Amino acid sequence: MSTQPLRIAIVVGEASGDILGAALMQALQARHPHVEFIGIGGPRMLALGMQSYFSQERLAVMGLVEVLGRLPELLKRRKQLIADLIAAKPDVLIGIDAPDFNLGLELAVRKAGIKTVHYVSPSVWAWRQKRVLKIREACDLMLTLFPFEAKFYQEHQVPVTFVGHSLADQVPLEVDQAAVRAELGLSNDAPVLALMPGSRGGEVSRLGDLFFATAQRVRELMPGVQLVLPCATPERRAQLEAQLQGRELPVLLLDGDTAKALTACDAVLIASGTATLEALLYRRPMVVAYRMAGFTYWLLRRLVKSPYISLPNLLAGEGLVPEILQEEASVERLAAEVLPLLKPCAEREQMLKRFAEIHLQLRQGAAERAADAVLALIGRSA
């Protein structure tokens, strides 16, 4: 444990980055009690002593139109932040996610002689692969959550460390399904299907009715199946309740509580996204479905290099879970894929076996590994 002063700059752009940033700060503080943090942080990071130049919420913008509307402000803030960081001379700058903002920041600061780290790889391995050239110029070190990302950077001569995923550290290797079912009022004598149509309004608009119709079909073919759905926000709950109007479908809606829904269920019908990783870590067989605007899908099919879209398949390197997209995501098709997973079968057992292996692979102590990699980069290992 070092007593030398250490100044570390961290810049995050959204809530998920604040979670990773806070965990990294704690790991660094454990190794260097005299560390000072500056940059842009969210509430968790501020609570740990981060000196933030402005609110992290000013960077939390999604969507092309929204970004264009805020572009002058974002460019102005980045220019000022570059000047502030160069003047502060931190030992290292760590940009967490937010690549459109952070990579330009890292490039400018690195040219001024400050070491730079980027934590959480953009999906450069899937599309716009030439971005790796900018990443190589901007970063002294890339920290990745997944091993297949680290392999991509190694192939492109970018210094990289695979640190694992903090969610894999948090999700227990074993869960008590019976206890959670009892807490939720669900029976242990009938299978439970979790429905997870996404956390954004657009996703729920495209998938909510489809998932409910699929659940009705599943219950026709397997009477007694219980249904549970964790609502990401109060707005999503209201949206889903409106979609349930007129349906004789008993769905237990939960406020948040994704972990309880996944613990209680036997299988999941789920929108493609980060929630599929959580389902994998809880070792729940899943069917992944997604619908997007027709032009967006047409464009992505031509841009995306990966044969898979879901994290379980990307991590497995094979078509481990069904991915059913666009017009192929019909009620009959989804029901046919879900039904076998609600009871013991070879396909289900193969999924569970690979999920367990992947969980252990990702369970690396991500914050601690990231802290050690950062300190090694600047020659300040504890």
Task: Write structural notes for this entry.
Helices cover 49% and strands 16% of the residues. With 382 residues, it is α/β, with parallel strands linked by helices. The strands form two sheets. The chain has a seven-stranded parallel beta sheet, with helices on both faces. Helix 1 links the parallel strand 1 and strand 2. Helix 1 packs across helix 17 and helix 3 packs parallel to helix 4. The radius of gyration is 22 Å and the shape is elongated. About 2% of the residues have low confidence.
Shape: elongated
Tally of strands: 13
Which structural class is indicated by helix and strand composition? alpha/beta
Question: Can you summarize the main beta sheet?
Answer: 7 strands, parallel
The residue-averaged pLDDT reads 89
- Note the quaternary state here: single chain
Number of H/I helices: 17
**Proportion of strand residues:** 15-25%
What's the alpha carbon Rg, rounded to whole Å? 22 Å
- Element order: H for helix, E for strand: EHEHEHEHEHEHEHHEHEHEHEHEHHEHHH
**Model regions low in confidence, pLDDT < 50 over at least 5 residues:** 61-66
Terminal residue distance: 5 Å
Range of helix content = 40-55%
* Main sheet: strand order: 3-2-1-4-5-6-7
